[in-house]
Specification:
Length: 371
Amino acid sequence: MRSLFGLCVVLSTLPLIADGFHAFFRDDRGAGFKSEVAEVLEEIKQLHLTVEAYREKHGAFPASMSEADMESRHIHFMRHVHAAYPDSNYGTTSEQFCKLRDQIKTNFGPNSQGYNYLNDSGDLQPLNLDTLDQAETLVFWLGGFPTPYDPQLKVTVANRRIFGLHRDREAPLKRDSARLEGTDPMRYRTEYLFQFDETRLTDIDDDGWLEYSPLPTRSGERSAPYTYFDADGYALSVSGSGSAPRIGILGYPRHGDPHAAESAKGFGLAVPLARYFDPSFAGPMRWYEPEGFQIICAGLDGKYSEPVTGDLSRAYRVPVSPRGHVFHRSTNYAEAANYCDGELDNLNNFSTETLKSARDTFLRNSGVLPP
Ligand SMILES: [Ca+2]
Ligand SMILES: [Ca+2]
């Protein structure tokens, strides 16, 4: 049944694929392209191994903060901290998340201070846990907080961009007082799990939390950062069954975040990939890495997809690889379209080639494209 359906979809969308097939998006056969792709894939592999190592050490995959519903997102974060740092006692409720968020902004009581950052206008701002997103969680869990600023001097308190967490296992998110930090603020901070190239750390949404871009910027243009989605976020985003399951909003940037519209206009929208999706919902949807995580990279064009200029909440989509189909929220996931140009060169942690390359191999093997 499933294979029959698959064949019908391939045949019915043939003209679409043929139209896009000759579209030039980049010379994907050039030696330079291949070596750059290999370099990015190697880094994705190292990030993947580090997230695996994090799970070994902490017992759970880092929370990606993907949930569209705020309360669910808060609870997931708190449960994760509780699992990863069992000696901590921050609690697991949404109210306790809000308390922690406020402590991060101000202080954690006596002998403590909060975290801040210098925004694009040159003003010091408190760091807001509510805006930590799926690009920033990769840096946060594998590296830690962005290094705070001295309020008088307006320079970072340590000569590095990532400040780690606190080594106090009962209070890993706290920050010591200025007196305790003294001349050696890194003394009680944790080390990176991943060696980030500091020149590629960005803060594209100006919220202080750092993102990590896969490529050195070319011609001054910023490249979209790596994004991280944990399976709890995407596997749980589909609810119900039969002919009308509901697919939640799932992607980066998150609808409703400050600067999300701006970011989607520049970089498009990063979303997790499905292995199988049937728009009639006759068969259950299958994600890649259904019990793991997906790292989505925008590829060498630095964009996840075509720019999103309209309503971001309607722009979410489910791409299906290697078949090369995309189902859009705007059509209630009913119609198959082709990948857009921006996502053809995208890379991820469960394939060793671009989406276009994987699709073309699939189509050649299916006899749709000539060998
Ligand atoms: Ca940021
Ligand atoms: Ca791309």
